[in-house]
Amino acid sequence: MRPNYVLGGRYRITKALGEGGMANVYLAHDLILDRDVSVKLLRLDLRDDPHTIKRFQREGLAATELVHPNIVSVYDVGEENGMQYMVMEYVKGMDLKAYIKQHFPIPYQEVINIMEQVLSAVAVAHAHNIIHRDLKPQNILIDDKGVAKITDFGIAVAMSENALTQTNTVLGSVHYLSPEQARGGMATKKSDIYSLGIILYELLTGTVPFKGETAISIAIKHFQSEIPSVREFDPRIPQALENVVLKATSKKPADRYETVTDMANDLETSLSPRRASEPKFVPMPDEDDGETKVLDKSALHSEVAREEPDTDKTAAPKPKKRRRRRRWLYMLLGLGAVLIAMVGLAFWLGRPQTVTVPDVSGLTVNEAQEKLSDNNLDTGAIERQSSADIKKNLVIKTSPKADQAAKRDAKIKLYVSTGPRMVTIGNYVGRSYTRAAAVLKAKGVTVRRQNESSNEVPVGSVMQQSVENGQRINPKETTVTLTVSAGQRQLQLADLIGKKKAQIQQYATRESLNISFRYKYDEQAKDTAIDQTPGAGSTVREGSTVVVTLSRGKKPASNSGPKVEDFNVTVTIPFEATNSSSNGSGKNSISSTSGVNTVQIYIRDHDHGYGTVYKQLTIAQDTEVTIPFAVASNKSGGYKIIRDGKVILSDNNVTKNSH
């Protein structure tokens, strides 16, 4: 599609961004909302397939329901001149495939942070019964703030139906294809979990587990070969973290995580020292391996021999009298009935006896084991997982589920609660609010923003957090408040005209303003403000300088009193680094080794004395100031500069020609 083409009368095409197996992607500008968007156009060779078009439209509309910070938003789905298009959020950044290539090796905690964002997004999609079907790093975007966003929910289904016939496309997708999909089976939520496990494998190793020259050869490896060990690639990877990969990529869907949330919960604690001695995950073996049983030949021959005489007798019965025939008939019928009864009894005795799995949720493990034993069942593996509803150390559920049938003496898996899912809070101070909030929201934490003025912290950066770094919280009960810098405080300047010098100095101290006084003969009483710059009502930032002209009083007669000369003296005030840290609240806040210096300037001249502060200011670097003096002939002035309570500069013999 050519640049400047306006799609749907609204989206002006800017340039091509890329070509995929299902769609071509363009950067466009929304002329109505004045924002950049990405537009996906269904590929030309698929536009004549009504089934693909229907899927594209239906799945695109479904994707518009997915509102999540880690899912690329779908704004619009439409058609123009037979072209099916989807309008999506434009994410400035790179896909995860390129991110891994550029940043590998990636720190384990960052790997977990990225995966937690992705898992949170997939969990929302699964809650809407939307299965992605084509999760891979190429469909995960990382924006310039480090936030992960999943894309292509809208065309995942259409792609899955065409993947095995599109060699170039499947080579990208088949590396993340679940065994059941590789066999041609239906994709489920657990198929997405398998793909997520492969993505985690690639984040940890920088490569995919299976490679081959053709898509078919790679697909075969997915359901025949075991996933290579990530710890063989990097022995420093904790066993608990490798176990997440192994469980998510189990060949049998039943051995994988039940939900994406379960995977996220397990991944979250995988770096915990408490799991340092965790054994390697091994899937549960099948009770019935499903192999074909071969009947013993001798048994087969004996069965044939046993049946042959009956066949011969039946085929060539000797002639009997009517009554004798009837008696033999009754005997045969009786024997047949007995035989049928014996066969039925043998079948009934030989069939597996089943029992109903009891409901043991809410019980302790010991209580659950006793109840299972009372119902002729054994206890199998015990898996611990978080639960917001079931108290710690109590059973959440079983597998098979309660009220389902199970073989007598079968092993029942217990899922035991570790209590509410706890989230570890990191240190977000100094990071941008957008990125910090995205990471917290991906963990399910509710975030509240609180703005606060600051002269030192850049606008939009986190200054303080209500929960300390390293603390574990229940995200359903605790809200994390992030205090964000709003930059320097702004205020409307008061009307200072007519006010006395002391009143103006008090106002300047209260509002953190710097006042520079000028003097002029005027009819107003001495030290009364007669002018100000900026004017009253002007909006100024905290720390700004306001020039106020004060009256010297009435101008004396030309022959009375000494002549007063006006001149300026320029002085450089050196900055001294100090330690300024948290505000004592016990919460994480910005700690700086630069800080600011508070400076007071005192001057002595015709209009001032050392008894009052001439000017007060705060500095964060060496600062040059200009001090105006009014000194009578044959007299001298003086200045004294105090930095943080200590005199650092002074001169008591200031004249017009001395500086």
Give an account of the 3D structure.
The chain is of the alpha+beta class and 659 residues long. The protein has 16 helices and 31 strands. Strands 1-2-3-4-6-5 form a six-stranded antiparallel β-sheet, with helices on one face. It has a four-stranded mixed β-sheet with strand order 16-19-17-26, with helices on one face. Helix 3 runs antiparallel to helix 7 and helix 3 (108-127) crosses helix 15. The radius of gyration is 41 Å and the shape is elongated. The two termini are 71 Å apart.
Cα distance spanning the termini: 71 Å
**What spatial order of strands do you see in the largest sheet?**
1-2-3-4-6-5
Low-confidence stretches: 154-172, 288-320, 580-586
Rg, nearest Å: 41 Å
Report the strand count.
31
Q: What would you call the structural class?
A: alpha+beta
Average pLDDT, rounded to a whole number, is 81
Oligomeric state, counting identical vs distinct chains: single chain
What would you call the shape? elongated
- Tally of alpha and pi helices: 16
Helix content: 25-40%
Sheet with the most strands?
A: 6 strands, antiparallel
Give the percentage of residues in beta strands. 25-35%
